[in-house]
Design a protein that fits this description.
The complex is a heterodimer of chains A (457) and B (113).
Chain A lengths: L9 H17 L4 H22 L5 H26 L7 H4 L8 H15 L6 H12 L4 H8 L3 H17 L2 H5 L2 H24 L5 H19 L7 H14 L25 H14 L7 H14 L8 H14 L3 H14 L2 H10 L4 H4 L2 H13 L3 H14 L3 H10 L27 H8 L13
Chain B lengths: L3 E9 L10 H17 L4 E7 L4 E3 L4 E3 L8 E10 L2 H9 L2 H4 L3 E7 L4
Antiparallel strand pairs in B: 1-5, 1-6, 2-5, 3-4
Classes of the chains: A mainly alpha (457), B alpha+beta (113).
């Protein structure tokens, strides 16, 4: 019996790795069989390893077992078809060997799978669900829990991605480095969405949310270190993730309640994580490209580097928002920009900025819009407007935690000195580019329109 | 005083495990099993194994299973050692084989002359 200790999330990550490696070798048209074989190999491992101990090379063990199961399954399949005189040239598949291969190849396979899934024809939400299932090893129930949606919905999204991939079989084998480069922005979008689902969701418990962030960071790190994905844009995205993730644990109090940015204990911020984020941010500052990820990482960095809420360099934050508006115009960014203006200049100027906007209904109906308005009006001494928006914000708050936070935040009309809705982290969703899960439902569930545009610009 | 040995027979309901466990659940099961193994290392004589299909043999015939009752399937066995049946029961009770919903473990002393 060996004393090999398995790394954290070994089973879940091996699931993704095995599916990706086998798909790369055998083809995405066999995805269903591949997933079955991998599931069954993991079950064998569970049975065998609990009794005999973990083998020296657990990954190779699993690969061999999964490959042999798949091999057997496919051979039967070919035989059946031959009996039916269906002339299928699938025998070549069976000539593959079960030799395990290097870690670098394995990582390439994993990324390849991600690139394959980031197909323009697949709606972004389906890409996300597909990535969570095949690359991160979550099952349908676990995905529905994390994305705060129904299992039926997860199934729908998953099968949409799968059927598209079945149709586009040839792509997997021919997805060369150059073509992968073309898909890089789409890959960034799905990783960004994966991260924000974890970081910004107000509906799901903290532990589950941070798992989504960690998965996004794992895949983005892989991407940043691989020739197919190492670009300033990837570095900026990864920097942004590290800078947000480092502050995540400080966003809640002991009882799970949400904390405003100014209430957070900054000593709880993960300084090592911030340093990693800043390192990637420095790496991203190469070449001509300036992307939304650069701007968002810049904003996050300003907050990380400020010794206290009062010492935040709001002028710099505002500048980042202006740059962000140039790369990615979004009403949510404008709202956050206004909040930063209120700190840098005055609440009145922030209100003026909001009045210039032509916000979409999903924003004006959100508690966030109402909360910011209530706060700004309050600080300008507009009592009745403030009360109006306050009531609207409270009734629109999607979770009890948020409602409590808003009640506390918008409660005292007399204590306005150092209060504000903090950008980026304050309400837990100030940077929210993607609407809440429920809005996503409405936006992305329209499967009748396969060419539906990505929500992310 | 030498410890006595006990045969543990693990049973589960045929439909006890609703659906396949996810990789994350397997991870959890694996961790639980290892923790249990470590905790009771002194009691575990033989981790045994899973039992596959088989036949019941008499002087006249050999019959294929199911052997006892269709509603229960003997999944596996192992051998423990303990000072007493109570101790053996405690060990078995905390084993993942007993914790799983719909599962039970029968503990029987192996009586040797």
């Amino acid at each position: 019996m060996t004393a090999t200790v398995l790394v954290e999330h070994f089973f879940r990550h091996e699931y993704g790795q095995l599916v990706a490696s086998l798909t790369s070798r055998i083809g995405v048209q066999h995805l269903a069989d591949i997933e079955d074989a991998v599931q069954s190999a993991l079950m064998s491992a569970l049975d065998s390893w609990t009794i005999a101990g973990v083998p020296n090379e657990p990954s190779a063990w699993l690969y061999r077992v999964a490959f042999n199961k798949l091999h057997g399954e496919l051979r039967q399949c070919v035989r059946r078809r031959q009996i039916l005189r269906d002339n299928v040239a699938e025998t070549m598949v069976l000539e593959e060997t079960s030799d395990f291969y290097s870690a670098t190849e394995a990582q390439t396979d994993l990324l390849k799978m991600l690139f394959v899934a980031c197909d323009d024809e697949i709606p972004l939400q389906s890409q996300l669900v597909f990535a969570l299932k095949t690359l991160c090893g979550f099952d349908v129930r676990e995905i529905s829990l994390r994305l705060f949606t129904t299992e039926t919905n997860v199934y729908k999204r998953l099968s949409r991605a799968r059927s598209r991939l079945q149709d586009a079989v040839t792509q997997t084998d021919t997805l060369a480095l150059v073509q992968m480069r073309v898909r890089l922005p789409a890959v960034h979008s799905v990783l960004y969405l994966l991260f924000t689902e974890g970081y910004l969701s107000s509906n799901v418990e903290m532990a589950l949310r941070s798992e989504l962030c960690d998965e996004a960071m794992r895949l983005t790190t892989l991407l940043a270190e691989h020739p197919a994905g190492s670009s300033p844009e990837t570095f900026a995205l990864l920097a942004m993730m590290h800078l947000h993730r480092s502050r995540m644990s400080a966003r809640q109090d002991g009882a799970g309640g949400l904390l405003l940015l100014e209430e957070q204990d900054r000593s709880l911020w993960d300084q090592a994580g911030i340093q990693v984020g800043l390192k990637w941010l420095a790496a991203s500052a190469v070449g001509e490209t300036f992307t939304r990820y650069h701007a968002e990482a810049g904003i996050a960095a300003e907050h990380c580097l400020a010794a206290s809420f009062a010492e935040t360099r709001w002028d710099q934050v505002c500048q980042c928002y202006e740059l962000l508006a140039q790369t990615t115009a979004s009403p949510i960014h404008q709202l956050n920009h206004a909040v930063a203006i209120a700190e840098w200049k005055s609440p009145a100027e922030a209100l003026a900025k909001l009045n210039e906007m032509d916000p979409p209904p999903w924003l004006t109906e959100s508690y966030l819009w109402a909360a910011v308005k209530a706060d700004l009006h309050q600080r300008c001494g507009h009592t009745s407007e403030s009360a109006h928006y306050r009531a609207q914000a409270l009734s629109a708050a999607p979770t009890p935690h948020l409602k409590t936070l808003l009640e506390r935040r918008l409660a005292q009309p007399n204590e306005t000195a150092c209060q504000q809705i903090s950008p980026v982290t304050g309400l837990g969703l100030a940077v929210k580019q993607i609407p809440t899960a429920k809005q996503n439902e409405q936006r992305f569930c329209d499967f009748s329109n396969p060419r539906q545009k990505r929500h992310l610009p | 005083m030498t410890k006595k040995q006990y045969l543990c027979i693990q049973r589960s309901q045929p439909n006890g495990d609703c659906g396949k466990p996810s990789p994350a659940q397997m991870e959890e099961m694996f961790a639980k099993f290892n923790a249990w193994k470590q905790k009771f290392a002194d009691n575990i004589v033989d981790m045994g194994g899973k039992l596959g299909g088989g036949q019941v043999v008499t002087s006249e015939s050999a019959t294929g299973g199911p052997f006892i009752e269709a509603k229960e399937i003997i999944g596996g066995y192992m051998i423990l050692q303990a000072e007493s049946i109570d101790e053996a029961v405690t060990v078995a009770q905390q084993s993942p084989g007993a914790i799983m919903p719909g599962s039970s473990v029968e503990v029987r002393e192996i009586v040797t002359p």
